[in-house]
Amino acid sequence: MTLDRRLFLRTATAGGAVLALGAQGTAPAAAAPGGFPDYRHVRTLLKPGQLSYNPTGEIIFPCIRGVYDKLSNPLGRYYLYYAPHDAPGGICLAYGNSLEGPFTEYKANPIVSNNWSPHYKVSHVSSPHVLWNADARELWLYFHGENNTTRLARSKDGITFTYDRTVLTTAMLPAGSREASYARVFRHDLPSRGAKYVMLFMWNQANDHRDIGWGWSADGRNWTFSQQPLIDHAAVGAVNVSGPHLLTRNGSAYVVYHTDKGSGGDIRITEVGMDFSRRNHLGVFYNSGSAAPESGRAAAPSFGTDGGVPYMIYEAGERLSGAIAVARG
């Protein structure tokens, strides 16, 4: 995102449509591919150096959830989950009353550690994605540890979790697969597959390139996984792709994901259709700025709406040395 693009003034309708005027009050800003909002960086929300739980000086993979209409007496209207990646990692929570912040670090982080007896003892846990499971009326946490394993834990309050099971390992994928992590799960009906949930994840294959894999489930616990990538790195001209998120709009489904900095460091978008049969690569969804805090990299987006205004919360900056930031549509 260039500096002159940042100078645009923005207003949003209650339905989330964006109207924009340039710095001179001229041409409107173009929407992102697929008709999505043209998100613009607003501010940094969390920096590792400002956190009490900061074992490695880095944090990644934000997941934002509105809990004001789901939980009794939550700490704030919004729960923001995140984690360090390097050992020991640890699933963390911050809370606030606006998607633009401020967010307050939960005093007893991490809420999930790398040693959860008798279920596992691993070098690290990371990449939290929390789904509101309306069927169970619980918050379901999907997270990885080690990099070849994705796990599930469940909670009634979003803070205290009960371990459930392993939901994905590289053993469920073709031989030679190295990683199956950074998963996000979404409520999405696939009638032809008897599924109500879809998982998107980063899949490091035998060729040591990272693609977007996917799977489907009737209950969010028992999964079937495609043995072919949903989004192949080579198909979009990247070395690696990761951090997928599912969005729907105007009767179709889209996957947004980031590329590594050597492939542009931007967030891109592919239309997959409601039945996941399409592969319509639409290009850049969010163009990372060269200045701090993005410094040429935006990644791992999570989305929410506050007062009818759409927001994207994401990693800003070099991997393992960045921050959690927010952009507004």
TrEMBL record:
It comes from the Bacteria. Residues 1-31 form the signal peptide. Keywords: Signal. This is Secreted protein.
